[in-house]
Amino acid sequence: MEEKEVIVVCNLSKYYELTTFKQSFFRSLVSRKEKFKALNDVSFKINRNEIVGITGPNGSGKTTLLKILAGIIPYDEGTIKIKGKITALLSSGLGFHKDLTGYDNILIYAKSLGIPTKVIRENIHKILEFSEIGKFLYEPIKRYSSGMLDRLSFSVVQFINSEIVLFDEVFSFSDVSFQNKINNYIKEFSKNKTIIIVTHKLNVLINLCDRVIVLYKGNKIADDIPLYALNTYYKHINLNLYDNFQYKCPEINFDPPFNFNGFKVFKCYIVECLSNGEEVRKQNSIFSNQFYLCIVSEILTTNAELSIGYIIMDSMNNRLTLFYLDTSTIKIKYNEKTTVKAKLNSKIFSNGLFKIQPFIVNLVSGKFIFLDSEIFFVINSEEKKLSDVVYFPFNLNVEWSV
Question: What's residue 220's pLDDT?
Fold first, then answer.
């Protein structure tokens, strides 16, 4: 077991004995036992401070694997080596009592996770702030919604003192804003902990996890960076991964035009620029890494101090870079509708989901006015392997044209 490794699983198998019934010759039911293989020869390694997702269809062995790692159930074949204390969260609000208050349940839940009562009492203000439960803290939790129970659970989880934390689809009822809050916190959490998350949620797997392990009928069929692992999974079940993103043609139409001090933006969209210079309008928002992306904006301006630019973010709204048109080097026609193009080599992107937000910039004061719209696009290349992934730089060589 190498120094950086905290979990090493080799040839792990788990059997369950199932009872089945068959009609006998005399029409009476006869029971018999048969073995069901929940996990079949599964092997993987997890390094310190990694966030690893585990996914697969229902009944593929995900929860069984987590329970084995947590020491809740035994395994039948193989070996497991774990370095460090491990805590498993197998259900949101597990152990909560519906007739007790939120505060009482916090203390009980913390106790079940090995968190000292003193720590909870000293940090109750942080729990209240994070959970946003507020005045409901001293109400019986039978009056709480599922989402409120999620909030209460995770507000306690942040004080776990374990090196390895396992999550089993425990935050399925959280709203979008709190889910983002959880995701951001887990990223921070992983700086001194190793995280394993069992989930079906694509956005969690793609945006939060360093790797994804896919189980299918007890077998490991993929262990790779998220997009490649999920692509393998979806091909295995004859589905298209990117159909699930539900992002159509990457285009924004402003009707009426976005107008700021005489600077109007009518439309922004992305085209693929082929090697022969031909521009292709896409019917979806999935791009390869072998072409150029061309962000096209139709603008009209009467103000020489103003120009257009774009900010690029990942799907967790982390700002990656921004760039804008310098009108001192590239001239645009004033009082006339103009098409402005920013040409980017998409090889600089890692595989993943990205967003572009256009903005208007005052070239004199440096102030930005963001347009309240976003273009979504996916970079996907089956040719790119883990060692080839280039993470997004902050300085871009952008080729502008009008």
Answer: 96
